[in-house]
């Protein structure tokens, strides 16, 4: 069993309020949950308008499968949210 985690350090340049930021983050979280069946949570910077930390966690039986899913998630986020800036941190356990 392999646990994969991705932490997205996100900068949202067009957000001018917490409401705008939360709309973007909610959309990102819902799309990831429905498309990849993973756990997603905002884990930091909840009170900042243009910054967020989002954690995505999954479990699979093999390392290769986990790495493939993680890369698919990263590609999906980068292609569907091009207006956002990301720093990405991956870890396999």
Please, could you describe this protein's structure?
The chain has 93 residues and is an alpha+beta fold. The protein has helices at residues 18-36, 63-80; strands spanning 2-11, 39-44, 51-60, 85-92. The chain is elongated. The model has no long low-confidence stretch (mean pLDDT 95).
Detail the topology: elements first, then pairings.
Blueprint: E1 2-11, H1 18-36, E2 39-44, E3 51-60, H2 63-80, E4 85-92
Antiparallel strand pairs: 1-3, 1-4, 2-3
Protein name: DUF503 domain-containing protein
InterPro entries: DUF503 (IPR007546), TT1725-like_sf (IPR036746)
Pfam families: DUF503
The CATH architecture designation is: 2-Layer Sandwich
Number of helices: 2
CATH superfamily caption:
TT1725-like
In total, the number of domains comes to: 1
The stretches of 5 or more residues where confidence is low (pLDDT under 50) are none
Tell me the overall shape.
Answer: elongated
Helix % is 25-40%
Structural class: alpha+beta
